[in-house]
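Run Nucleotid_trans domain-containing protein through structure prediction, thanks.
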Amino acid sequence: MCSGNPPNYHRLIVACVVRADDGDESRQHSAPSAADRRPLLPAPSHQLVQDREARPCQHRGPGTLSQAYRSEEGLRGASGETEKHDHANIVDRDHYLKHIDTKKAFEERREKLDEHIHMMPAVAPSKRTIYPKRQEMGECKPLFGKVLVFVAYVESSMKTHYKVAQDTLHCYLKGTNYTTAFVDLDHDKRVKENCPHDQLFFKKHCAASVYLQDVDWMLVLDADTAVVNPNHCIEEWIDDRVDLVFYERFFNWEIASGNYLAKNTEFARTFLRKWADWQYIQPSNWNGADNGVLQLHILQTVLPDAVQEVKACDAIWHKGTDYDSYMAYVTCVKVMLGANRIWPGKIRIYRRAHGWVRDGFLTSDNFCDSDFMLHGWKLQAIETNGWNSPFRKMFNVSECGSAYLGWNYRPGYKITCEEVRKRLAAFEQSAGNTFPKKAQGLPYLTQPDIGNCYPKCDDLT
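Sure, done. The structure for Nucleotid_trans domain-containing protein is below.
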């Protein structure tokens, strides 16, 4: 682990939720119908259904370059069992399926959802509305409407982790017009009514789909995501050409699942609900849980006609036995998506280190003007376990709200963006040189392209 980093890079589920102000009469939303509240299962296929139980992947101990990912994923359990909570409202898969009136009705509903998410009319690329960069801690004007910051959490972990990260968030929010709500995944009434999932990572995305109905845009954050440079507005990363915004993890090119932006549209809400419901059909092997699901979910969503390509990546995914073989699946999805990073009306994926957040360990928590948030802070106090944070003392949130009051920086932690670029360039080269050999193969050389479907491979294109 890099020196100066907070230890124990587990990724506990946590998201920030921004609610619409109760007194805002200009934005009224009708209550969702019973049909809209019903959990939505992803469309199963002959290949996806086999050997799938509600059981996540197995994980091994930390290793060289990928140690942050492996230890972060360690929360899901070395034995392959995801941490579960015995809630009164938790149901098993059979009970869950009883929410569907009949198999026929469910199939009809599923087909309608797939038609909506996959068969949207083509949207011509339009010019993005560029939000002006925040200057001298000035006002963040609501150019894109009401923005909600959403953090979902489990009470037990919130008491032992995340105070430093969450204090930075609260300090930042006091100087903006955003609102923040914390959603207790075990006890929140709306989550209980709409999200029967018992695996926290998937339950988080269901909860996000529920609260997204209240606002125009929502920023979902992991609880260990800290604001390190408050001189930014969330809107700087909103792209109004799409409904969902993701970014790539720097050290392994994986599309990150913990932090994302979502617009209040039927497309975005459906995408999040289907993502959550993958809990019930995910592979039982080393699968990356919600991270792993997201890769294929995005590929299917933005390239619905790429049937053979999806099958190839899915086959590699099902063969995963460890981190290295899992990365072969991540590589497959990246190759199949190609150079494109934006699908108008659907999704944008920010290039590594260009989103609103990046892993802090990449630069030992040093930052520059371009940085906004750093991910991976899981401590209750600074000066703990040898970690020197960018701040010289703990936050007193009551001091925050005016310019940089309350932001007590340690000298030397803010550096030039050129220095950050050099460090990222060195890490980028190292990441490429040490990338798992199992993941370096080209999927179209290892998986059949026409062998299983000739002469009808293009019939669905």
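Residues 131-452 form a domain with the Spore Coat Polysaccharide Biosynthesis Protein SpsA; Chain A fold (CATH 3.90.550.10).
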